[in-house]
Amino acid sequence: MDTKKITGAQIVIETLIEQGVTDVFGYPGGQVLNIYDELYKASDRINHYLTAHEQGASHAADGYARATGKVGVVIATSGPGATNLVTGIATAMLDSIPMVAITGNVSRNLIGKDSFQEINITGVTLPITKHNYFVTDVSELADTIREAFKIAKSGRPGPVLVDVPKDIQASLCEFKPQGEVEPFAIPCADDSTIAEAVRLINECQKPYIYVGGGAVSANVGSEIMELAEKTDAYMGCTLMGLSAIPTNHQRFLGMEGMHGHFASSVANSNADLVIAIGARFSDRATGNTSTYCKGAKIIQLDCDPSEINKNIGVDTALIGDLKHSLREILKGTVKSEKPLWDEQVQGFVKKEEEIAARAAEMAGTRLTPAQVFDVINELKSPDTVVATDVGQHQMWSAQYLKFDKVRKFASSGGLGTMGYGMGAALGAQVGSGTRSILVTGDGSFGMNLNELATVSSYNMPVTIVLLNNGVLGMVRQWQTLFYGKRYSHTILGRNTDFIKLADAFGIAGERVDTAEGFRQAFERSLNAEAPYLIEVAIDKDEFVLPMVPPGGSMSDLITTKEVTE
Amino acid sequence: MKRFVIGVYVENKYGVLARISSMIMRKAFNIDSIASGMTNDDAFSRITITLRGEDYHCEQLINQLQKLHNVKNVAVLTRDDCVERELMLIKVKNSPVNRPEVMAATEVYRGKIIDYNPHTLCVEVTGEPTKINAFIDVMKPLGIIEIVRTGTVAMERSRTLAD
Question: Domains of chain A, with CATH numbers?
Fold first, then answer.
């Protein structure tokens, strides 16, 4: 099809295929009928997954992108179809996930007239997209979509929306297929800043590497481990940085911050040098910024200049491609052993183990989240992507899950979107081509459980681990600690029978309340070759610990529940 | 708080001004004015933003502007190497008592009377914002009816943002 004329709708599909897209998520409607007609005709070249709701489709595109590193694609109609994408787009924006959202809109002659299902979605999504387009000329359609892909995957990735009026979809235009667009080149950090970073690293005694989501998208886990091994640095990460470093690495201490590992957070605050790699010093990671790492020098590596000195002032900033910066740093740093730092950090690790042992002892025979995650870690494959919703179960996932490979964790870190998990898990399942796991809670699950219909109708192997405590646990935890145990609207008590619910969607499920019961159920789910729901009864007053109170410092760390009672 | 004047060279495309003002709102920058207009190149527009804040805010605004896809160049315009102007139209009461005062002040401020009717006088004044503010102070006791200001526009003396 060299340069013959095709319709705008065909151009949309041909450009997606040209950009290497094999799977899209979406929901049809009046203003994308033409695009869906072309999807029908191209069904042998591109897979479309119909979700129950556009929000689910947007989270699926996001989960797909996190699992694969490719650009996730979602299609929705105008008006409510488009506005239903908003939470999914914002989730992708806050976590820097590459996504292209294609929406239909009313024909150009109806724009601005409050026509049926008309919404100015470019205006609505202005603050939550990396960029967006309203296509007004069919001759610009293909290049606009190409540019959308280029922007979505370049530098710090993010969501891009392309709004295509219906008459543009129907217009004819010449189309010449091109290759996949390459991302914009990321500049390299200045030699002088690299030299300064090398000097600081060679001079420090207690280095701590703070790994963020940028390390996942730039895939620099091996360079970071090499730096840690060479300089005797310890590594910790943000929620978004999880799976960048294999959990079992000797120098990896796990997530730090508000609900981070004790050893990781304390090592961070005791370090004399903090090397931030693709991390943005979010309030959840730093706590009180006026006391954060006051005794330490800070080096920040990031490809986005606007992150430098935004939340925390740094001593040296390496703005540019992370891989390049790390390789240059590795060239300059000298091998160094730091037994005193090792000894100090191993003390923190030992203390953390003691806290965990004490918590396990106090739990007695009760089924604890830690036991659930022990089973998941033992039985899941290294290729499994675990998606979560938002709340206590999310923090337990972040604390307890073990990862061997990168891109195996999909969780809404920045926006904290309850209801993210169901869509993300199915998107990750499609992207990874293997079973995915959703860890969710009864609150979050209630928000988008409609997507059970999707996993059921496509028979997607997704294991849903539903930690049911009958309350909005994380909010309840705050109410317990900071609001005098006034449990305002956090006791759900809905008596939903989740097993019957799963059954209604054609999904097998079972309820467990012991560790052994969970193990057996989880094994059954792995052999099911179908979606499977496991409802795990947990105590409503289970806490996520440790916890740095909001706005607090490491010195305010709460490690045991006893102090709160 | 300091005052910063920032020149922004942008592609002349759909929604560019909305993109910039949306970013300013979402990041809660404190701006005095934003003025946009065409340039000698149809493909580009030029926007002047005046910001109030500390050096940190200026640095952040520059970084955020540079992230926007349609923004081609951004520069802080310092007093030493840029020219800065604002245009104001001001409508004041016309009366036998007022008239000589308004006309005298307009003369001194090198303004122009651009409309005259039995009830009102319209004056056009151009200059740096401090001059405009001073003229407003002079007019206050005479009875200001309405003011329209363009906001600051500024340009570097020798460099150009278009390169």
Answer: 5-174 (3.40.50.970), 191-346 (3.40.50.1220), 369-541 (3.40.50.970)
